[in-house]
Design brief:
Order of helices and strands: HHHHHH
Low-confidence stretches: none
Shape: elongated
Distance between the termini: 33 Å
Number of domains: 1
Number of strands: 0
Radius of gyration: 19 Å
Mean pLDDT: 85
């Protein structure tokens, strides 16, 4: 039987793991988008674009889903980070709280980004790449740098030195 993962790693390892996860999530969306654009340029769209109404409906669905997830991600992240203020005393608890909020924020941004790239693959409408770019920008605004984590968690000088 395997041992459960240690979620109480040292602070530097926790920050590094968040940075690696961020790079993997953003990189996956970017590489998938590049692959789909190249595939589209070579083969054209997969879905028959003869029905403009259906393809416009798909693009609209991407916009609605992306807008809902953007708003949900921002509000969830703000609410979760506000709940942790003053209630968490140990640095490991603060980092675990930040990690949970960060993962959900990134998931709410990455899902619609991948969905928009899939719609590009199906319809060939490059307008959905604007939505993908907006979602990537939202993801980039939360890149887990040492200074951002210190600022978001409002760490004291002792905790800053541990990170």
């Amino acid at each position: 039987m395997t041992e459960p993962a240690d979620i109480n790693m040292n602070p530097k390892e926790a920050v590094r793991s968040l940075q690696i996860m961020f790079g993997a999530l953003v990189g996956a969306v970017v590489f998938f988008a590049i692959a789909v654009v190249l595939l589209h340029l070579i083969n054209g769209p997969i879905y028959d674009t003869g029905s403009i109404i259906q393809s416009n409906l798909m693009v609209t669905a991407v916009g609605v889903v992306a807008a809902a997830c953007m708003l949900g991600a921002r509000s969830y992240y703000k609410k979760t980070m506000a709940m942790g203020e003053g209630t968490l005393y140990l640095l490991s608890d603060k980092l675990n709280h930040y990690r949970a909020a960060f993962i959900i924020y990134m998931a709410l941004c990455e899902g619609p980004a991948i969905f928009s790239v899939i719609i590009l693959l199906l319809t060939g409408k490059f307008i959905v790449l604007i939505i993908t770019a907006l979602l990537l920008a939202m993801m980039w605004l939360k890149v887990p740098t040492r200074s951002r984590i210190i600022q978001e968690l409002k760490l004291d000088w002792r905790e800053k030195e541990l990170i």
